[in-house]
Protein backbone atom coordinates (compact mmCIF):
# COMPACT_ATOMS: atom_id res chain seq x y z
CA UNK A 1 0.00 0.00 0.00
CA UNK A 2 1.76 3.16 -1.26
CA UNK A 3 2.06 6.30 0.81
CA UNK A 4 2.48 9.52 -1.21
CA UNK A 5 3.69 12.90 0.05
CA UNK A 6 3.33 16.38 -1.53
CA UNK A 7 6.56 18.14 -2.53
CA UNK A 8 6.14 20.91 0.04
CA UNK A 9 6.04 18.36 2.84
CA UNK A 10 9.01 16.48 1.36
CA UNK A 11 11.12 19.65 1.57
CA UNK A 12 10.43 19.85 5.30
CA UNK A 13 11.00 16.16 5.98
CA UNK A 14 14.24 16.00 3.98
CA UNK A 15 15.30 19.51 5.05
CA UNK A 16 16.00 20.47 1.45
CA UNK A 17 15.06 23.63 -0.45
CA UNK A 18 12.31 23.54 -3.05
CA UNK A 19 14.64 24.48 -5.90
CA UNK A 20 17.09 21.69 -4.92
CA UNK A 21 14.22 19.18 -4.87
CA UNK A 22 13.07 20.31 -8.32
CA UNK A 23 16.64 19.90 -9.57
CA UNK A 24 16.71 16.30 -8.31
CA UNK A 25 13.43 15.60 -10.13
CA UNK A 26 14.70 17.15 -13.38
CA UNK A 27 17.92 15.12 -13.19
CA UNK A 28 16.06 11.86 -12.59
CA UNK A 29 17.39 11.43 -9.06
CA UNK A 30 13.91 11.46 -7.57
CA UNK A 31 10.80 9.93 -9.12
CA UNK A 32 7.41 11.58 -8.69
CA UNK A 33 3.87 10.58 -9.51
CA UNK A 34 1.38 13.36 -10.28
CA UNK A 35 3.45 15.85 -8.27
CA UNK A 36 3.80 13.50 -5.28
CA UNK A 37 6.68 11.44 -3.87
CA UNK A 38 6.19 7.87 -2.68
CA UNK A 39 7.51 7.17 0.82
CA UNK A 40 9.89 4.38 -0.24
CA UNK A 41 11.23 6.58 -3.04
CA UNK A 42 11.95 9.29 -0.45
CA UNK A 43 13.89 6.78 1.64
CA UNK A 44 15.84 5.67 -1.44
CA UNK A 45 16.73 9.22 -2.51
CA UNK A 46 17.83 10.27 0.99
CA UNK A 47 19.45 7.16 2.48
CA UNK A 48 21.59 9.17 4.91
CA UNK A 49 18.82 11.37 6.26
CA UNK A 50 18.22 11.15 9.99
CA UNK A 51 14.48 10.85 10.40
CA UNK A 52 13.71 12.09 13.88
CA UNK A 53 10.12 11.38 14.90
CA UNK A 54 10.58 13.36 18.12
CA UNK A 55 11.80 16.57 16.47
CA UNK A 56 8.41 18.26 16.13
CA UNK A 57 7.34 17.18 19.62
CA UNK A 58 10.50 18.75 21.03
CA UNK A 59 9.86 21.94 19.08
CA UNK A 60 6.34 22.29 20.49
CA UNK A 61 7.57 21.54 24.02
CA UNK A 62 10.26 24.19 23.60
CA UNK A 63 7.71 26.74 22.41
CA UNK A 64 5.48 25.93 25.36
CA UNK A 65 8.32 26.26 27.87
CA UNK A 66 9.52 29.55 26.42
CA UNK A 67 6.08 31.06 25.91
CA UNK A 68 5.56 34.08 28.16
CA UNK A 69 1.84 34.38 27.64
CA UNK A 70 -1.22 32.62 26.38
CA UNK A 71 -1.25 34.53 23.05
CA UNK A 72 2.29 33.36 22.18
CA UNK A 73 1.42 29.72 22.76
CA UNK A 74 -1.87 29.99 20.89
CA UNK A 75 -0.06 31.64 17.96
CA UNK A 76 2.34 28.70 17.71
CA UNK A 77 -0.38 26.03 17.59
CA UNK A 78 -3.28 25.52 15.19
CA UNK A 79 -6.75 26.64 16.20
CA UNK A 80 -8.16 24.17 18.74
CA UNK A 81 -11.04 23.14 16.46
CA UNK A 82 -8.65 22.67 13.52
CA UNK A 83 -6.30 20.67 15.73
CA UNK A 84 -9.20 18.52 16.95
CA UNK A 85 -10.34 17.91 13.35
CA UNK A 86 -6.80 16.90 12.29
CA UNK A 87 -6.50 14.53 15.25
CA UNK A 88 -9.91 13.07 14.42
CA UNK A 89 -8.78 12.51 10.82
CA UNK A 90 -5.57 10.90 12.05
CA UNK A 91 -7.66 8.66 14.30
CA UNK A 92 -9.74 7.61 11.29
CA UNK A 93 -6.58 6.80 9.35
CA UNK A 94 -5.28 4.77 12.27
CA UNK A 95 -8.59 2.89 12.57
CA UNK A 96 -8.66 2.18 8.83
CA UNK A 97 -5.07 0.92 8.92
CA UNK A 98 -5.74 -1.30 11.93
CA UNK A 99 -8.88 -2.71 10.29
CA UNK A 100 -6.88 -3.48 7.15
CA UNK A 101 -4.16 -5.22 9.18
CA UNK A 102 -6.83 -7.29 10.95
CA UNK A 103 -8.20 -8.24 7.54
CA UNK A 104 -4.71 -9.27 6.37
CA UNK A 105 -4.31 -11.34 9.55
CA UNK A 106 -7.63 -13.10 8.87
CA UNK A 107 -6.60 -13.79 5.28
CA UNK A 108 -3.32 -15.33 6.46
CA UNK A 109 -5.19 -17.51 8.97
CA UNK A 110 -7.56 -18.62 6.25
CA UNK A 111 -4.60 -19.34 3.96
CA UNK A 112 -2.92 -21.42 6.66
CA UNK A 113 -6.10 -23.47 7.13
CA UNK A 114 -6.43 -24.00 3.37
CA UNK A 115 -2.85 -25.23 3.18
CA UNK A 116 -3.61 -27.76 5.93
CA UNK A 117 -6.69 -28.98 4.04
CA UNK A 118 -4.89 -29.33 0.74
CA UNK A 119 -1.89 -31.11 2.29
CA UNK A 120 -4.14 -33.91 3.57
CA UNK A 121 -5.35 -34.94 0.11
CA UNK A 122 -2.41 -34.19 -2.18
CA UNK A 123 0.78 -35.94 -3.21
CA UNK A 124 4.07 -35.71 -1.36
CA UNK A 125 5.34 -33.34 -3.99
CA UNK A 126 2.37 -30.99 -3.52
CA UNK A 127 2.62 -31.19 0.24
CA UNK A 128 6.31 -30.33 0.03
CA UNK A 129 5.55 -27.30 -2.17
CA UNK A 130 2.84 -26.10 0.23
CA UNK A 131 5.12 -26.65 3.21
CA UNK A 132 7.80 -24.56 1.48
CA UNK A 133 5.24 -21.82 0.78
CA UNK A 134 4.08 -21.82 4.42
CA UNK A 135 7.69 -21.59 5.65
CA UNK A 136 8.34 -18.73 3.23
CA UNK A 137 5.34 -16.76 4.49
CA UNK A 138 6.11 -17.37 8.16
CA UNK A 139 9.79 -16.49 7.73
CA UNK A 140 9.15 -13.23 5.90
CA UNK A 141 6.38 -12.15 8.28
CA UNK A 142 8.75 -12.72 11.20
CA UNK A 143 11.60 -10.78 9.61
CA UNK A 144 12.08 -7.11 10.42
CA UNK A 145 12.73 -5.14 7.20
CA UNK A 146 16.16 -3.45 7.17
CA UNK A 147 14.60 0.01 6.83
CA UNK A 148 11.79 -0.59 9.33
CA UNK A 149 13.13 1.90 11.87
CA UNK A 150 13.60 4.58 9.20
CA UNK A 151 10.15 3.96 7.76
CA UNK A 152 8.56 4.13 11.20
CA UNK A 153 10.39 7.35 12.11
CA UNK A 154 9.61 8.97 8.74
CA UNK A 155 5.92 8.10 8.92
CA UNK A 156 5.75 9.35 12.53
CA UNK A 157 7.42 12.64 11.56
CA UNK A 158 5.14 13.05 8.54
CA UNK A 159 2.06 12.39 10.69
CA UNK A 160 3.18 15.08 13.15
CA UNK A 161 3.64 17.52 10.26
CA UNK A 162 0.10 16.74 9.12
CA UNK A 163 -1.21 17.53 12.60
CA UNK A 164 0.73 20.78 12.87
CA UNK A 165 0.34 21.97 9.27
CA UNK A 166 -1.56 21.50 6.02
CA UNK A 167 -0.49 21.59 2.38
CA UNK A 168 -2.34 23.95 0.02
CA UNK A 169 -2.37 23.91 -3.78
CA UNK A 170 -3.77 26.87 -5.74
CA UNK A 171 -5.43 26.24 -9.08
CA UNK A 172 -4.96 27.12 -11.89
CA UNK A 173 -1.59 28.77 -11.09
CA UNK A 174 -0.11 25.66 -9.42
CA UNK A 175 1.32 27.61 -6.46
CA UNK A 176 1.85 25.55 -3.31
CA UNK A 177 2.43 26.50 0.31
CA UNK A 178 2.15 25.17 3.84
CA UNK A 179 -0.30 26.50 6.45
CA UNK A 180 1.29 26.37 9.88
CA UNK A 181 0.43 27.45 13.40
CA UNK A 182 -2.79 29.43 13.74
CA UNK A 183 -2.60 31.06 10.28
CA UNK A 184 -5.55 31.50 7.98
CA UNK A 185 -5.20 30.46 4.35
CA UNK A 186 -4.63 34.08 3.34
CA UNK A 187 -1.97 34.73 6.00
CA UNK A 188 -0.07 31.57 5.07
CA UNK A 189 -0.22 32.39 1.35
CA UNK A 190 1.10 35.93 1.79
CA UNK A 191 3.86 34.72 4.09
CA UNK A 192 4.87 32.21 1.42
CA UNK A 193 4.99 34.94 -1.23
CA UNK A 194 1.77 33.92 -3.02
CA UNK A 195 -0.19 37.07 -3.84
CA UNK A 196 -3.79 35.91 -3.55
CA UNK A 197 -6.61 38.40 -4.11
CA UNK A 198 -7.79 40.14 -0.95
CA UNK A 199 -9.05 43.50 0.25
CA UNK A 200 -9.51 44.27 3.94
CA UNK A 201 -8.07 40.94 5.21
CA UNK A 202 -10.48 40.95 8.16
CA UNK A 203 -13.72 39.50 6.77
CA UNK A 204 -15.56 42.65 5.70
CA UNK A 205 -15.15 43.00 1.92
CA UNK A 206 -15.34 39.47 0.49
CA UNK A 207 -12.49 40.13 -1.97
CA UNK A 208 -10.66 36.99 -0.84
CA UNK A 209 -13.46 34.64 -1.89
CA UNK A 210 -12.15 31.37 -3.34
CA UNK A 211 -13.61 27.97 -4.23
CA UNK A 212 -12.64 24.88 -2.28
CA UNK A 213 -12.02 22.05 -4.77
CA UNK A 214 -10.94 19.35 -2.34
CA UNK A 215 -10.06 18.95 1.32
CA UNK A 216 -11.65 20.57 4.34
CA UNK A 217 -11.40 24.06 5.81
CA UNK A 218 -12.77 25.45 9.03
CA UNK A 219 -13.81 28.98 9.95
CA UNK A 220 -11.43 30.30 12.62
CA UNK A 221 -12.00 34.07 12.34
CA UNK A 222 -15.30 35.94 12.47
CA UNK A 223 -16.39 37.79 9.31
CA UNK A 224 -19.15 40.25 8.53
CA UNK A 225 -19.28 39.50 4.82
CA UNK A 226 -22.23 37.22 4.06
CA UNK A 227 -21.78 34.45 1.51
CA UNK A 228 -24.89 33.62 -0.52
CA UNK A 229 -26.34 30.13 -0.38
CA UNK A 230 -25.34 29.65 -4.02
CA UNK A 231 -21.72 30.48 -3.11
CA UNK A 232 -21.77 28.14 -0.13
CA UNK A 233 -23.16 25.32 -2.27
CA UNK A 234 -20.37 25.92 -4.79
CA UNK A 235 -17.72 25.59 -2.05
CA UNK A 236 -16.83 29.29 -1.84
CA UNK A 237 -14.95 30.30 1.33
CA UNK A 238 -13.24 33.43 2.67
CA UNK A 239 -9.48 32.89 2.75
CA UNK A 240 -8.99 35.49 5.49
CA UNK A 241 -11.32 33.64 7.87
CA UNK A 242 -10.62 29.95 7.22
CA UNK A 243 -7.81 27.56 8.10
CA UNK A 244 -7.03 24.28 6.37
CA UNK A 245 -7.99 21.18 8.32
CA UNK A 246 -6.15 18.87 5.94
CA UNK A 247 -4.41 19.12 2.57
CA UNK A 248 -6.60 21.25 0.32
CA UNK A 249 -6.85 22.37 -3.30
CA UNK A 250 -8.34 25.83 -3.84
CA UNK A 251 -9.37 27.69 -6.97
CA UNK A 252 -8.23 31.30 -6.56
CA UNK A 253 -6.66 34.12 -8.53
CA UNK A 254 -3.00 34.99 -7.98
CA UNK A 255 -2.69 38.72 -8.64
CA UNK A 256 -0.28 40.45 -10.99
CA UNK A 257 0.86 44.07 -10.84
CA UNK A 258 -2.07 45.24 -12.99
CA UNK A 259 -4.63 43.43 -10.82
CA UNK A 260 -4.03 45.43 -7.62
CA UNK A 261 -6.09 48.59 -7.39
CA UNK A 262 -4.77 51.84 -5.99
CA UNK A 263 -5.34 52.13 -2.26
CA UNK A 264 -5.46 55.06 0.15
CA UNK A 265 -4.72 54.54 3.82
CA UNK A 266 -3.03 56.16 6.80
CA UNK A 267 -0.09 54.39 8.45
CA UNK A 268 1.81 55.16 11.64
CA UNK A 269 5.53 55.89 11.79
CA UNK A 270 7.09 53.09 13.81
CA UNK A 271 10.75 54.15 13.68
CA UNK A 272 13.48 55.72 11.57
CA UNK A 273 16.53 53.47 11.18
CA UNK A 274 19.64 55.47 10.28
CA UNK A 275 22.13 53.40 8.28
CA UNK A 276 24.65 56.21 7.74
CA UNK A 277 24.57 60.00 7.24
CA UNK A 278 23.31 59.51 3.68
CA UNK A 279 20.62 56.81 3.98
CA UNK A 280 17.92 55.84 6.46
CA UNK A 281 14.85 53.61 6.50
CA UNK A 282 11.39 54.73 7.53
CA UNK A 283 9.41 51.89 9.12
CA UNK A 284 5.63 52.23 8.91
CA UNK A 285 2.82 50.14 10.36
CA UNK A 286 -0.42 49.82 8.40
CA UNK A 287 -3.70 49.63 10.36
CA UNK A 288 -5.08 46.18 11.18
CA UNK A 289 -8.31 46.95 9.35
CA UNK A 290 -6.68 48.16 6.12
CA UNK A 291 -3.41 46.55 5.21
CA UNK A 292 -1.56 47.79 2.14
CA UNK A 293 -1.77 45.28 -0.67
CA UNK A 294 1.27 45.35 -2.96
CA UNK A 295 3.76 43.17 -4.81
CA UNK A 296 7.48 43.09 -4.08
CA UNK A 297 9.28 45.74 -6.14
CA UNK A 298 6.37 48.19 -6.37
CA UNK A 299 6.36 51.80 -5.13
CA UNK A 300 4.03 53.96 -3.04
CA UNK A 301 3.45 57.68 -2.61
CA UNK A 302 3.89 59.04 0.93
CA UNK A 303 2.27 62.29 2.09
CA UNK A 304 2.63 64.22 5.33
CA UNK A 305 2.22 67.87 6.31
CA UNK A 306 1.31 68.92 2.79
CA UNK A 307 4.34 67.33 1.11
CA UNK A 308 4.69 64.05 -0.75
CA UNK A 309 7.15 61.76 -2.50
CA UNK A 310 7.16 58.51 -4.48
CA UNK A 311 9.42 55.76 -3.14
CA UNK A 312 9.98 52.03 -3.83
CA UNK A 313 8.96 49.69 -1.03
CA UNK A 314 11.93 47.89 0.53
CA UNK A 315 9.93 45.37 2.58
CA UNK A 316 8.25 42.20 1.38
CA UNK A 317 4.45 41.62 1.32
CA UNK A 318 5.20 38.61 3.51
CA UNK A 319 5.97 41.02 6.39
CA UNK A 320 2.24 41.62 6.92
CA UNK A 321 1.53 45.17 8.17
CA UNK A 322 5.15 46.33 8.23
CA UNK A 323 6.23 48.67 5.40
CA UNK A 324 9.83 49.82 4.96
CA UNK A 325 10.88 52.77 2.81
CA UNK A 326 14.60 53.47 2.26
CA UNK A 327 15.33 57.14 1.69
CA UNK A 328 18.42 58.93 0.43
CA UNK A 329 19.05 62.17 2.32
CA UNK A 330 18.84 65.02 -0.17
CA UNK A 331 19.09 68.71 0.72
CA UNK A 332 16.98 69.57 -2.34
CA UNK A 333 14.22 67.15 -1.35
CA UNK A 334 12.19 68.78 1.45
CA UNK A 335 9.99 65.69 1.85
CA UNK A 336 12.98 63.39 2.46
CA UNK A 337 14.20 65.84 5.12
CA UNK A 338 10.77 65.74 6.76
CA UNK A 339 10.64 61.94 6.76
CA UNK A 340 14.12 61.57 8.20
CA UNK A 341 14.25 64.47 10.66
CA UNK A 342 10.70 65.70 11.31
CA UNK A 343 8.67 62.54 11.87
CA UNK A 344 8.14 61.12 15.32
CA UNK A 345 6.94 57.70 16.46
CA UNK A 346 3.17 57.28 15.88
CA UNK A 347 3.00 60.26 13.50
CA UNK A 348 0.54 59.66 10.66
CA UNK A 349 1.69 59.20 7.05
CA UNK A 350 -0.75 58.91 4.15
CA UNK A 351 -0.07 56.14 1.64
CA UNK A 352 -1.24 55.88 -1.96
CA UNK A 353 -0.50 53.02 -4.31
CA UNK A 354 0.97 50.67 -5.18
CA UNK A 355 2.49 51.72 -8.50
CA UNK A 356 4.79 50.11 -11.04
CA UNK A 357 5.30 46.73 -12.68
CA UNK A 358 8.82 45.97 -11.48
CA UNK A 359 7.73 42.67 -9.93
CA UNK A 360 9.00 39.12 -9.81
CA UNK A 361 8.12 36.71 -12.62
CA UNK A 362 7.21 34.01 -10.11
CA UNK A 363 6.33 31.45 -12.78
CA UNK A 364 10.01 31.28 -13.75
CA UNK A 365 12.42 28.88 -12.04
CA UNK A 366 15.48 30.26 -13.85
CA UNK A 367 18.46 31.44 -11.77
CA UNK A 368 18.21 35.14 -10.92
CA UNK A 369 20.76 37.95 -11.07
CA UNK A 370 19.85 41.08 -9.09
CA UNK A 371 21.74 44.27 -9.91
CA UNK A 372 21.31 47.21 -7.52
CA UNK A 373 22.73 50.67 -8.21
CA UNK A 374 23.04 52.65 -4.96
CA UNK A 375 19.62 53.27 -3.38
CA UNK A 376 18.21 50.91 -6.03
CA UNK A 377 18.90 48.27 -3.40
CA UNK A 378 15.53 49.16 -1.83
CA UNK A 379 13.22 47.50 -4.41
CA UNK A 380 15.82 44.79 -5.01
CA UNK A 381 15.69 43.91 -1.30
CA UNK A 382 11.91 43.48 -1.56
CA UNK A 383 12.27 41.25 -4.62
CA UNK A 384 14.99 39.12 -2.99
CA UNK A 385 12.84 38.49 0.08
CA UNK A 386 9.94 37.54 -2.21
CA UNK A 387 12.17 35.15 -4.20
CA UNK A 388 13.35 33.58 -0.94
CA UNK A 389 9.80 33.06 0.29
CA UNK A 390 8.81 31.34 -2.97
CA UNK A 391 12.02 29.23 -2.95
CA UNK A 392 11.73 28.46 -6.67
CA UNK A 393 14.82 30.08 -8.22
CA UNK A 394 17.71 27.74 -8.92
CA UNK A 395 20.12 30.34 -7.54
CA UNK A 396 20.15 34.02 -6.55
CA UNK A 397 23.10 36.35 -7.19
CA UNK A 398 23.14 39.92 -5.88
CA UNK A 399 25.50 42.52 -7.37
CA UNK A 400 25.34 45.81 -5.46
CA UNK A 401 27.13 48.70 -7.16
CA UNK A 402 27.62 51.23 -4.39
CA UNK A 403 27.57 55.02 -4.66
CA UNK A 404 28.72 57.51 -2.01
CA UNK A 405 26.22 55.98 0.47
CA UNK A 406 28.07 52.66 0.34
CA UNK A 407 26.62 49.21 1.01
CA UNK A 408 24.47 50.45 3.86
CA UNK A 409 22.92 47.01 4.55
CA UNK A 410 26.03 44.98 3.90
CA UNK A 411 25.57 42.82 7.00
CA UNK A 412 22.06 41.81 5.91
CA UNK A 413 23.31 40.73 2.49
CA UNK A 414 26.14 38.73 4.02
CA UNK A 415 23.68 37.09 6.42
CA UNK A 416 21.60 35.95 3.43
CA UNK A 417 24.72 34.51 1.79
CA UNK A 418 25.71 32.69 5.00
CA UNK A 419 22.23 31.26 5.56
CA UNK A 420 21.40 30.15 2.00
CA UNK A 421 23.42 27.72 -0.11
CA UNK A 422 22.07 29.13 -3.37
CA UNK A 423 22.61 32.84 -2.57
CA UNK A 424 25.72 34.71 -3.71
CA UNK A 425 26.48 38.31 -2.74
CA UNK A 426 29.03 40.43 -4.62
CA UNK A 427 29.48 44.04 -3.39
CA UNK A 428 31.08 46.43 -5.88
CA UNK A 429 32.88 49.54 -4.62
CA UNK A 430 32.04 52.95 -6.11
CA UNK A 431 33.63 53.14 -9.56
CA UNK A 432 34.19 55.90 -12.08
CA UNK A 433 33.84 53.45 -14.98
CA UNK A 434 30.41 51.93 -14.41
CA UNK A 435 30.35 50.41 -17.90
CA UNK A 436 33.46 48.36 -17.14
CA UNK A 437 31.95 47.13 -13.85
CA UNK A 438 28.75 46.02 -15.56
CA UNK A 439 30.70 44.34 -18.35
CA UNK A 440 32.77 42.43 -15.78
CA UNK A 441 29.56 41.24 -14.11
CA UNK A 442 28.09 40.07 -17.44
CA UNK A 443 31.37 38.32 -18.34
CA UNK A 444 31.04 36.18 -15.21
CA UNK A 445 27.99 34.47 -16.77
CA UNK A 446 28.93 32.75 -20.06
CA UNK A 447 25.49 31.08 -20.07
CA UNK A 448 23.60 34.35 -19.51
CA UNK A 449 20.70 33.13 -21.66
CA UNK A 450 19.69 30.84 -18.75
CA UNK A 451 19.16 33.73 -16.31
CA UNK A 452 16.61 36.35 -15.36
CA UNK A 453 18.07 39.76 -14.53
CA UNK A 454 16.37 42.37 -12.31
CA UNK A 455 18.08 45.76 -12.09
CA UNK A 456 17.19 48.94 -10.19
CA UNK A 457 18.87 52.34 -10.52
CA UNK A 458 18.64 55.60 -12.44
CA UNK A 459 17.33 55.63 -16.00
CA UNK A 460 20.84 56.23 -17.38
CA UNK A 461 22.35 53.38 -15.33
CA UNK A 462 19.64 50.96 -16.44
CA UNK A 463 19.96 51.91 -20.10
CA UNK A 464 23.71 51.21 -19.98
CA UNK A 465 23.26 47.96 -18.08
CA UNK A 466 20.55 46.70 -20.44
CA UNK A 467 22.69 47.29 -23.52
CA UNK A 468 25.68 45.44 -22.02
CA UNK A 469 23.66 42.48 -20.72
CA UNK A 470 21.86 42.01 -24.04
CA UNK A 471 25.18 42.18 -25.88
CA UNK A 472 26.43 39.35 -23.67
CA UNK A 473 23.53 37.05 -24.57
CA UNK A 474 20.70 37.85 -22.16
CA UNK A 475 17.31 37.45 -23.90
CA UNK A 476 15.39 40.72 -23.89
CA UNK A 477 12.36 39.05 -22.26
CA UNK A 478 14.55 38.04 -19.28
CA UNK A 479 15.36 41.68 -18.37
CA UNK A 480 13.31 43.67 -15.80
CA UNK A 481 14.05 47.14 -14.46
CA UNK A 482 12.88 49.55 -11.78
CA UNK A 483 13.84 53.21 -11.98
CA UNK A 484 14.74 55.08 -8.80
CA UNK A 485 15.94 58.64 -8.22
CA UNK A 486 19.52 58.94 -6.98
Tell me about this structure.
- By secondary structure, the chain is an alpha/beta fold.
- 32% of the residues are buried.
- The protein is 39% helix and 23% strand.
- Helix 6 packs antiparallel against helix 7 (124-142), helix 6 packs antiparallel against helix 8 (148-164) and helix 14 (434-443) runs parallel beside helix 15.
- The chain contains 15 helices and 20 strands.
- A hairpin with a 4-residue loop joins strand 10 and strand 11 (279-285).
- The chain starts with a strand and ends with a strand.
- Strands 13-12-15-10-11-14 form a six-stranded antiparallel beta sheet, covered by helices on one side.
- Among the domains are: 164-256, Beta-grasp domain (Ubiquitin-like (UB roll)), CATH 3.10.20.30; 258-355, Beta Barrel (Elongation Factor Tu (Ef-tu), domain 3), CATH 2.40.30.10; 368-483, Nucleotide-binding domain of ferredoxin-NADP reductase (FNR) module (Rossmann fold, 3-Layer(aba) Sandwich).
User: Radius of gyration in whole Å, from Cα?
Assistant: 28 Å
The fourth-level CATH homologous superfamily of the domain at 368-483 is Nucleotide-binding domain of ferredoxin-NADP reductase (FNR) module
Instruction: Describe the global form.
Output: elongated
Query: How large is the count of helical segments?
Result: 15
CATH architecture of the domain at 368-483: 3-Layer(aba) Sandwich
**What's the number of extended β-strand segments?**
20
Strands in their spatial order, largest beta sheet: 13-12-15-10-11-14
Largest sheet at a glance?
A: 6 strands, antiparallel
> Which class of secondary structure composition applies to the elements?
alpha/beta
CATH level-1 class of the domain at 368-483: Alpha Beta
Mean of residue pLDDT values = 85
Multimerization status: single chain
What's the CATH topology label of the domain at 368-483? Rossmann fold
Q: β content, as a range?
A: 15-25%
Helix content: 25-40%
Spatial separation of the terminal alpha carbons: 62 Å
Low-confidence stretches: 67-74
